[in-house]
Write a structure and sequence with these properties.
Blueprint (H helix, E strand, L loop, with lengths): L2 E5 L3 H24 L13 H26 L10 H15 L11 E3 L4 E4 L4 H24 L5 H8 L2 H4 L3 H29 L3 H5 L2 E5 L2
Antiparallel strand pairs: 1-4, 2-3
Helix pairs in contact: 1-2, 3-4, 4-7, 5-7
Protein backbone atom coordinates (compact mmCIF):
# COMPACT_ATOMS: atom_id res chain seq x y z
CA UNK A 1 0.00 0.00 0.00
CA UNK A 2 1.25 3.48 -0.90
CA UNK A 3 2.28 5.58 2.10
CA UNK A 4 3.14 9.23 2.55
CA UNK A 5 4.84 11.11 5.37
CA UNK A 6 2.24 13.01 7.37
CA UNK A 7 2.43 15.32 10.37
CA UNK A 8 0.52 13.23 12.89
CA UNK A 9 1.07 15.15 16.14
CA UNK A 10 1.91 18.83 16.47
CA UNK A 11 4.44 20.10 18.99
CA UNK A 12 1.86 20.99 21.63
CA UNK A 13 0.45 17.47 21.78
CA UNK A 14 3.92 15.97 21.98
CA UNK A 15 5.06 18.26 24.80
CA UNK A 16 1.90 17.62 26.84
CA UNK A 17 2.11 13.86 26.20
CA UNK A 18 5.68 13.60 27.47
CA UNK A 19 4.99 15.88 30.44
CA UNK A 20 2.17 13.54 31.49
CA UNK A 21 4.43 10.51 31.00
CA UNK A 22 7.19 12.05 33.16
CA UNK A 23 4.72 13.14 35.83
CA UNK A 24 3.05 9.72 35.77
CA UNK A 25 6.35 7.87 36.21
CA UNK A 26 7.34 10.18 39.06
CA UNK A 27 3.93 9.70 40.71
CA UNK A 28 4.22 5.94 40.35
CA UNK A 29 7.71 5.77 41.86
CA UNK A 30 6.93 8.09 44.78
CA UNK A 31 3.66 6.25 45.38
CA UNK A 32 5.40 2.88 45.47
CA UNK A 33 7.98 4.25 47.90
CA UNK A 34 5.36 5.73 50.24
CA UNK A 35 3.41 2.49 50.18
CA UNK A 36 6.50 0.35 50.82
CA UNK A 37 5.76 -1.59 47.64
CA UNK A 38 8.45 -3.64 45.85
CA UNK A 39 11.16 -2.07 48.01
CA UNK A 40 11.31 1.15 45.97
CA UNK A 41 13.65 3.64 47.70
CA UNK A 42 14.67 6.36 45.26
CA UNK A 43 13.84 9.59 47.07
CA UNK A 44 14.72 11.13 50.46
CA UNK A 45 12.08 9.81 52.86
CA UNK A 46 11.08 13.18 54.32
CA UNK A 47 10.31 14.81 51.01
CA UNK A 48 8.61 11.97 49.18
CA UNK A 49 5.07 12.91 50.24
CA UNK A 50 5.53 16.56 49.24
CA UNK A 51 7.05 15.55 45.89
CA UNK A 52 4.14 13.18 45.27
CA UNK A 53 1.52 15.83 46.04
CA UNK A 54 3.18 18.61 44.03
CA UNK A 55 3.68 16.28 41.06
CA UNK A 56 0.08 15.13 41.38
CA UNK A 57 -1.19 18.70 41.20
CA UNK A 58 1.03 19.34 38.18
CA UNK A 59 -0.33 16.17 36.56
CA UNK A 60 -3.92 17.33 37.11
CA UNK A 61 -3.29 20.70 35.46
CA UNK A 62 -1.32 19.14 32.59
CA UNK A 63 -4.07 16.58 31.93
CA UNK A 64 -6.79 19.25 31.98
CA UNK A 65 -4.77 21.41 29.61
CA UNK A 66 -4.28 18.43 27.28
CA UNK A 67 -8.06 17.93 27.23
CA UNK A 68 -8.57 21.62 26.47
CA UNK A 69 -5.89 21.47 23.75
CA UNK A 70 -7.50 18.45 22.09
CA UNK A 71 -10.90 20.16 22.07
CA UNK A 72 -9.49 23.50 20.85
CA UNK A 73 -7.57 21.90 17.98
CA UNK A 74 -10.39 19.52 17.01
CA UNK A 75 -8.31 16.42 17.77
CA UNK A 76 -10.79 15.31 20.43
CA UNK A 77 -13.22 14.16 17.72
CA UNK A 78 -11.07 11.05 17.20
CA UNK A 79 -11.48 10.08 20.87
CA UNK A 80 -15.14 11.09 21.29
CA UNK A 81 -17.41 8.94 23.42
CA UNK A 82 -19.64 8.20 20.43
CA UNK A 83 -16.72 6.31 18.84
CA UNK A 84 -16.34 3.96 21.80
CA UNK A 85 -18.64 1.25 20.30
CA UNK A 86 -16.50 1.34 17.16
CA UNK A 87 -13.40 0.71 19.28
CA UNK A 88 -15.12 -2.16 21.10
CA UNK A 89 -16.11 -3.82 17.81
CA UNK A 90 -12.54 -3.53 16.55
CA UNK A 91 -11.18 -5.05 19.77
CA UNK A 92 -13.70 -7.89 19.48
CA UNK A 93 -12.49 -8.65 15.95
CA UNK A 94 -8.87 -8.44 17.10
CA UNK A 95 -9.51 -10.97 19.89
CA UNK A 96 -11.22 -13.30 17.41
CA UNK A 97 -8.21 -13.04 15.12
CA UNK A 98 -5.79 -13.74 18.00
CA UNK A 99 -7.63 -16.98 18.78
CA UNK A 100 -7.94 -18.00 15.13
CA UNK A 101 -11.70 -17.49 15.03
CA UNK A 102 -11.66 -14.66 12.52
CA UNK A 103 -9.70 -13.13 9.69
CA UNK A 104 -6.72 -10.81 10.01
CA UNK A 105 -7.65 -7.33 11.22
CA UNK A 106 -6.05 -4.68 9.03
CA UNK A 107 -4.75 -1.36 10.28
CA UNK A 108 -7.63 1.09 9.75
CA UNK A 109 -5.56 4.27 9.62
CA UNK A 110 -6.02 6.07 6.28
CA UNK A 111 -4.95 9.47 4.95
CA UNK A 112 -6.65 11.30 2.09
CA UNK A 113 -3.77 12.76 0.11
CA UNK A 114 -5.98 14.94 -2.09
CA UNK A 115 -7.83 16.59 0.78
CA UNK A 116 -4.76 16.42 3.03
CA UNK A 117 -6.68 15.09 6.02
CA UNK A 118 -7.16 11.83 7.88
CA UNK A 119 -10.02 9.52 7.04
CA UNK A 120 -9.16 7.53 10.16
CA UNK A 121 -6.37 8.59 12.50
CA UNK A 122 -6.49 5.98 15.25
CA UNK A 123 -6.24 2.28 15.76
CA UNK A 124 -9.72 2.03 17.34
CA UNK A 125 -8.49 0.32 20.50
CA UNK A 126 -6.82 3.66 21.34
CA UNK A 127 -10.33 5.02 21.96
CA UNK A 128 -10.93 2.35 24.61
CA UNK A 129 -7.55 3.04 26.23
CA UNK A 130 -8.30 6.77 26.24
CA UNK A 131 -11.58 6.34 28.13
CA UNK A 132 -10.06 3.85 30.58
CA UNK A 133 -7.35 6.40 31.33
CA UNK A 134 -9.98 9.14 31.72
CA UNK A 135 -12.02 7.07 34.19
CA UNK A 136 -9.01 5.94 36.21
CA UNK A 137 -7.46 9.40 36.02
CA UNK A 138 -10.57 10.98 37.54
CA UNK A 139 -10.63 8.30 40.26
CA UNK A 140 -6.93 8.79 41.05
CA UNK A 141 -7.37 12.56 41.08
CA UNK A 142 -10.37 12.52 43.45
CA UNK A 143 -8.90 9.97 45.86
CA UNK A 144 -5.53 11.72 45.81
CA UNK A 145 -7.04 15.13 46.56
CA UNK A 146 -9.15 13.64 49.35
CA UNK A 147 -6.08 12.13 51.00
CA UNK A 148 -3.74 15.08 50.46
CA UNK A 149 -6.23 17.74 51.57
CA UNK A 150 -8.71 15.97 53.86
CA UNK A 151 -10.15 19.17 55.35
CA UNK A 152 -10.72 20.92 52.04
CA UNK A 153 -12.15 17.76 50.43
CA UNK A 154 -14.08 16.43 53.42
CA UNK A 155 -17.23 15.88 51.29
CA UNK A 156 -15.23 13.45 49.14
CA UNK A 157 -14.12 11.46 52.16
CA UNK A 158 -17.71 11.40 53.39
CA UNK A 159 -18.76 10.07 49.99
CA UNK A 160 -16.17 7.27 50.15
CA UNK A 161 -17.25 6.56 53.71
CA UNK A 162 -20.67 5.49 52.36
CA UNK A 163 -19.04 2.38 50.91
CA UNK A 164 -17.66 1.14 54.24
CA UNK A 165 -20.71 -1.14 54.55
CA UNK A 166 -19.42 -3.04 51.53
CA UNK A 167 -15.67 -2.50 51.69
CA UNK A 168 -15.07 -1.98 55.39
CA UNK A 169 -12.76 0.62 56.91
CA UNK A 170 -13.53 4.33 56.61
CA UNK A 171 -13.52 7.06 54.00
CA UNK A 172 -9.75 7.63 54.10
CA UNK A 173 -8.80 3.94 53.95
CA UNK A 174 -11.25 3.34 51.10
CA UNK A 175 -9.84 6.32 49.18
CA UNK A 176 -6.32 4.98 49.70
CA UNK A 177 -7.28 1.48 48.54
CA UNK A 178 -9.00 2.83 45.41
CA UNK A 179 -6.01 5.08 44.73
CA UNK A 180 -3.56 2.18 44.97
CA UNK A 181 -5.73 -0.19 42.93
CA UNK A 182 -6.15 2.43 40.19
CA UNK A 183 -2.38 2.93 40.11
CA UNK A 184 -1.75 -0.78 39.48
CA UNK A 185 -4.39 -0.89 36.73
CA UNK A 186 -2.87 2.18 35.08
CA UNK A 187 0.58 0.57 35.34
CA UNK A 188 -0.68 -2.54 33.55
CA UNK A 189 -2.40 -0.54 30.82
CA UNK A 190 0.72 1.60 30.46
CA UNK A 191 2.84 -1.44 29.60
CA UNK A 192 0.17 -2.65 27.14
CA UNK A 193 0.12 0.82 25.61
CA UNK A 194 3.90 0.81 25.18
CA UNK A 195 3.68 -2.61 23.54
CA UNK A 196 0.96 -1.42 21.13
CA UNK A 197 2.93 1.73 20.28
CA UNK A 198 5.87 -0.38 19.12
CA UNK A 199 3.59 -2.94 17.45
CA UNK A 200 1.89 -0.30 15.31
CA UNK A 201 5.10 1.74 14.84
CA UNK A 202 3.81 4.90 16.51
CA UNK A 203 6.99 5.76 18.42
CA UNK A 204 8.44 8.12 15.84
CA UNK A 205 5.23 10.14 15.53
CA UNK A 206 5.05 11.00 19.23
CA UNK A 207 8.73 12.06 19.22
CA UNK A 208 9.19 13.95 15.95
CA UNK A 209 5.52 14.32 14.98
CA UNK A 210 5.49 12.56 11.61
CA UNK A 211 4.54 9.07 10.43
CA UNK A 212 4.27 7.29 7.10
CA UNK A 213 0.52 6.79 6.72
CA UNK A 214 -1.41 4.61 4.26
CA UNK A 215 -2.96 6.74 1.55
CA UNK A 216 -6.53 6.24 0.36
Amino acid sequence: MYRTTVKRHDLGIRILHWLIVIEGVLLGLTGLQMGGIWGVRLFPGGGTWALHVVTGLAWIFTSLYLLYYLIATGEYRWYGLRRLPYGCRYLYNEVKAWFGMGGHVHEPIKFDNDREEYIEKLVPTEIIVWWIFVFLGILIMLTGLAMAFPQQFQPLLQFFDVFKVILGGGGYSIARSLHTLSMFIVLGIFFLHVYAVFLYRMVKSIIVGTREEPVS
